[in-house]
Amino acid sequence: MQWDTDYAGKSTGILTRARFLWSKDGLYALFELSSAGLNTDRSKPVGAERKGLYTEDCVELFLTPAPASPERYFEVEIGPFGHFFDIAVDRGARQEDTAWSSGATIATSRRVSARTAVIEVLLTAPGIVQALAPKERLPMNLYRMEGKAPRNYLAWSPPRTKKPNFHVPEAFGALVIEP
Fold it and tell me: How far apart are the C-alpha atoms of 175 and 179, rounded to whole Å?
C-alpha cells in the first residue's frame, strides 16, 4: 500500500509505501519513506524505548488484534534510525500500558542524498501473533510524522480530524490476513 495523504485527507506529495507479510513467527512490515528529512535525536540509544518518539520523524502502526474490540489496539512507533516505542491502548478504559512490548526486531537503512529511508520490523508479541489467522480482517492504520516546521502528519486511512489525532479507531482500515 502507499499513501501521501495527511490526517485531514489532503495530498502532501510525501510518499510512504508499506508492505506486510505474516508467518507463525509474527508480522513483518516494511516501510519505504520518500522525502525523508531524518529529523531524529540520534544521541538517544536505539535499544531502549523512546517515549515521545512521535515528536520526531517516525512511522506508526496501530493494530487491533480483536476486531470486536476496536477500542483496544497496539501502537508501535519506529524511527528511521531504529528508535522505537510501543504501547497497548484501551480507549474505552482510558488506559495505556507502556510496559507492553511488541517484541520488535528492527532494521533500518537510509540514503541521505536521495532523502529516503527504509524501516523493516518483525513484531512477535503474543497478542499480535495469535491474531494472525487466515482470512482475518484486523483493523489497522498507518501513520508517519515527518519534518520539523512545517510538520507533516501523514495517514494511510485519514481520521479527518481538525487537528492531528491518530487515536481514532473508527478511521482504521483493515489488514487482511491471506493464506
Answer: 13
